[in-house]
Amino acid sequence: MLGGLAAAFRTPDLRKKILFTLGLLAIYRLGTVIPTPGVDYTAIQKCVSVVQDNSLYGLINLFSGGALLQLSVFALGIMPYITASIIIQLLVVVIPRLEALKKEGQSGQAKLTQYTRYLTIALAVLQGTTILTLARTPGRLFQGCNEELIPDQSIPLILSMIIALTAGTALIMWFGELITDRGVGNGMSLLIFVSIISTMPGQFLRIFQTEGVFVFAVVVAVGSVVIAAAVYVEQA
Which of 10, 180, 71 is nearest to 60 (CA)? Predict the structure, then answer.
């Protein structure tokens, strides 16, 4: 595996693609920790510490890479795009016009992709509005935490926050398409993968602190076997 990676970096074109992909992924991770303008970051951190042992919030954190609970500019993540893609695929089956576009080949697929982008933006506005509506009332977004997450609740600021969240989703969607076109691998899949693994160091540390060395070693061993098996299957 390391030999293959070294060989890839010795190839100028492939090295450029790998560095381009890593750069966009780094920017993506940076955006997940930048709070949306208008959010009280200190209050957010207090509430996150209150619900960190809740399995539901842990699942949300897992798929958003911690961005959603932080109310960062990338809080909505890639989920609006995934939802829009699923909706378009379902509509293709029931709407003859969309089915005809799918059969047109590359030009029709380009139009379907454009429709997916428009629907992604619409879903981002809807989801961003919903999240901010919950965050405006203490105790609704984070059960058991009554901190005021948005001190200034004026209409212009709320609108600017919705725009920021929507722009964050549009930027992530663009990153995914750039990685697919000019980088290495499927961009959307890589963004989801990075979101999931970004929470793993914290999870491992929590297991070590709460369960002890033996359980931690077992988890690491099982994880290593699973990763090795996945690599073997991919190379076979």
Answer: 71
